[in-house]
Amino acid sequence: MKIIILTKNILAEQLLQEKLQRLNYEVFVSSHLFQPGNSQETVTAMIEYFPFIIFSETLSDAETLSILSLIEVQKHKIYRKGAKGLKRVDQEYWQEKGIHGWLLQSFEIEEIRELFSQAIAKQQTLQLLKPLSTERVVPSSKIRRPQREKDPMRLDECGFRNNERKIIEALASERGQIVSREKLCLILWDKEATNSKLAQLSYLVKGIKQRFNDLGIHIELLQTSWGKGYSLTSTFYDYFSLEEVQKTEEALY
User: Fold this and answer.
1) Contact, 178 vs 225, CB < 8 A?
2) What are the tens digits of pLDDT across the range 196-221?
3) Which helix (H) or strand (E) holds 14?
4) Are strands 229-232 and 179-180 parallel, antiparallel or unpaired?
5) How do beta strands 77-82 and 2-6 pair?
6) Where is the OmpR/PhoB-type domain positioned along the sequence (predicted)?
7) Fewer Cβ atoms within 10 Å of its own Cβ: the N or the C terminal residue of the chain?
8) pLDDT of residue 212
């Protein structure tokens, strides 16, 4: 298995690199991606060969988000290295951005072994089940591929689940304003937010983002505001029918 560690200081990764190599993984450590002027093509060309990506703690949040925005996160298992674990709300934020898990500096080789062993097993299982899965399938002949203003799509043509549509419609009614996670829980389940409901909400938002990607839209349409909630970017209205959004607003109010 091939792993790439993205860092700003190669020397800072020697201990982790050694542990991974002892587990017989091919490990490549790079600080090249953070040189000025690198294009998206340069980044994707380097990363596409590595099923597993580790972001070093030497990278800032902004630098990590910048690289995540340039790669197709669904094609990789992505981890972030750090000194300590994150709060649940912070974990959910990074999971929505494409981070699958965390590598703590305190991890012994056995913990690293099990972390990657479980990830590989899960990936293999998903590959076996993929041809059999019928969930979220929409016939390709019925999906209208995005062409921005020239060919706006309708939500009911895109295979969104009921609760996913409710989220999109609630956000669309606010026209770019942030909608809190607590308010969305009330809209979806008519109940106050609990840890369980917030986790379900995060899962639904992740599904929406994945569906946008499946439709060929690789820019951010649904934005997460850390600690505040969610909103739709102005670009959303380039891809989806404004008439449908207006009807949604009338239905909600």
Assistant:
1) yes
2) 788 788 888 888 888 888 888 888 88
3) helix 14-22
4) antiparallel
5) unpaired
6) 129-234
7) C
8) 87
Helix/strand/coil (H/E/C) assignment for every residue in 146-192: CCHHHCCECHHHCCCCHHHHHHHHHHHCCCCCCEEHHHHHHHHHCCC
Counting the structural domains of the chain, the total is 2
User: Is residue 108 included in any domain, yes or no?
Assistant: yes
Residues in contact with 22: Cβ distance below 8 Å, sequence separation at least 6, in sequence order = 109
Identify the domain containing residue 187 by its residue range. Answer: 145-252
Residues 176 and 118 in one domain: no
Q: Which residues of 2-18 are buried (b: 16+ CB within 10 A; e: fewer)?
A: ebbbbbeeeebbeebbe
Give the DSSP H/E element, type plus range, for residue 102: strand 101-104
Of 89, 86, 76, 90, residue with least CA distance to 119: 76
Spell out, as residue ranges, where the chain has pLDDT lower than 70. 35-40, 126-151, 241-253
- Same domain for 79 and 171: no
Of the residues 129, 155, 183, the one at which a domain ends: 129
**Residue with token string 């937010």:** 193
CATH assignment of the domain containing 13: 3.40.50.2300
Determine, yes or no, domain membership for 92.
yes
**Token pair of 27, please?**
């490990």
Residue 26 lies in a domain: yes
CATH number of the domain bearing residue 224: 1.10.10.10
